[in-house]
């Protein structure tokens, strides 16, 4: 067993401990390791199971670790299958889970460009109106920002005239066009 594998095994155990502070530190270290080497392959099934965990922290950590580890998955059907399971977190009942996962999408597109269209479609399905009035505009902004970043830096096949972001209760639908965000009323 290599040093990275031994380190990741210890961090995995700590990340799943009841001490939230230690678990968070271990998560951050695991995420860093996963960005440098495919150290999470042995935990993929456990991470997929964690996407359905009762704890929103566990769901978020699982999503972010899977997204980070996606860079090492070269088989497109496997990446697509994994993203299918991850996508539920983009529609999680907890707004903080949605926000953190949405914010990770541009990086996921950068490391797994074959998922770009799928990710854009999933982002466009997010409905911020299902969240508290205080969170809906934040989620809408995160989605718009991620879509704009993906469009700007993602595969050229994603560049289109516009990408629409669903609106929240008090937010009219917004469209990202030519790097300018406009509401329906302004069009």
Query: What are the segments in which pLDDT stays under 50 over at least 5 consecutive residues?
Result: 159-187
Q: Which structural class best describes the helix and strand composition?
A: mainly alpha
Distance between the termini: 60 Å
Count the DSSP helices. Answer: 9
User: C-alpha Rg, in Å?
Assistant: 17 Å
Number of strands: 3
Average of per-residue pLDDT values: 83
Description of the structure:
By secondary structure, the chain is mainly α. The protein has helices at residues 3-15, 20-36, 44-50, 56-69, 76-86, 95-103, 105-111, 116-125, 136-153, and strands spanning 163-165, 174-177, 180-183. It has a three-stranded antiparallel sheet with strand order 1-2-3. Strand 1 and strand 2 (174-177) form a beta hairpin. The longest helix has 18 residues, at 136-153. It is globular.
List the helices and strands and how they pair.
Blueprint: H1 3-15, H2 20-36, H3 44-50, H4 56-69, H5 76-86, H6 95-103, H7 105-111, H8 116-125, H9 136-153, E1 163-165, E2 174-177, E3 180-183
Antiparallel strand pairs: 1-2, 2-3
